Amino acid sequence: METQKRITSVIAGKEPDRIPVYIPGASNRFAKRLDEQHGEDIESQHVCICNGKDITPLAFLGIDCCDVPGPPHLEPEIPLPSLDDDSLFLDIFGRVFRRRIIREVEFHVYQGPYLTTEEKMLKWDHATPLQIEPDWFDRVYSEILDCIEKHHICPIFNGCDGFFTVLEGSIGVRNTAYLFHDYPEFLSMYLDKIFQVWSTDIKGILDAGGAFIMISDDIGERSRPTITPDLVERYLLPYYEQFVNLIHSKGGIAFFRTSGDVLGIIEVLIKAGFDAVHVMSTEISYLEEAKLFWGDQICLMGNVDCMSVLSFSNPSQVKNTVAKIIEFAKAGAKFMLGTASDLGGSVRLENVKMLVNTARHLGAY
User: What is the pTM of this model?
Assistant: First the structure.
């Protein structure tokens, strides 16, 4: 079965040939070790890159889908304020980041909020949609086709870094709490601005031929939601619904991800119309409970732990873990086996191979 059809089938609740495998990404260290062992084989199959992200390791291992970044932008029309430290910079939302270069790769590390006072919040006029690089559309369209048709892996584009995530990152935790409870008018005004930015990116991805779009928002912690479900439903649900409607209007699939516990807000996500949710909690019981109560309403993705299972277990233990997950999650489709996070440098290659092989064998319908 063609990869994209396999994924759309399970999301629709129809049994494909087998359970799809989803891994968000692979670190440079993991990719380097894979290349050391299989460099010649990888080279013979050529490199697979989508939107600047090298997904060759995942394509080589037979993964069905993975994450790729959102579209690149031109510089803001209104220059952002500069900071005293040249290594620090602001994004359009008012979050402070530090540039770090590790092994010739530049990383942007979040440092804290910039809009920490009411005066700064009211004067901030930079949270406006950014123009996507004009030549990006044709380039990424050909890369999507190459991924799907040649390498048999489907990219899931990052369409949104979240509302709560942006609020907390730009104005701070305490100010975010104040807005949610005491200043709903100001909160709605700021959420509208965030929506306009992300909806522009989502439209761009859809216009470029991206069918799978991930909406991320850190509204969950390890054992509970970060904010209560009633606040999520009151303030964030309307924007989630608009995102989903936009994606569906172009025939796309809407994915959702939050760190930690998703069970407290999964009914809100179902009400918003999301097609699939990535269960990032590493507790298998979370996935089992989600499958039991909501598995017929939304496709679940997860949730093999990259540390305890893929880094510090042996292949036999990995096989047992994957088999346990498939046993309760396979029925009724609407399930994609996946990892809770990217493949880090400590992940053992033989364990990932076992995960894929077990999914193909025991996940066959």
Answer: 0.95
pLDDT digits (tens, 9 = 90+) for 121-145: 989 999 999 999 999 999 999 999 9
Handedness of CA 89, 221, 293, 1 (dihedral sign): positive
3-75+128-362 classified as CATH 3.20.20.210? yes
Nearest to 306 by CA among 291, 327, 321, 294: 321
- How many residues are present in the chain? 365
- Domain positions in the chain are 3-75+128-362, 78-114
* Segment 330-351, tens digit of pLDDT: 999 999 999 989 999 999 999 9
pLDDT at 222: 59
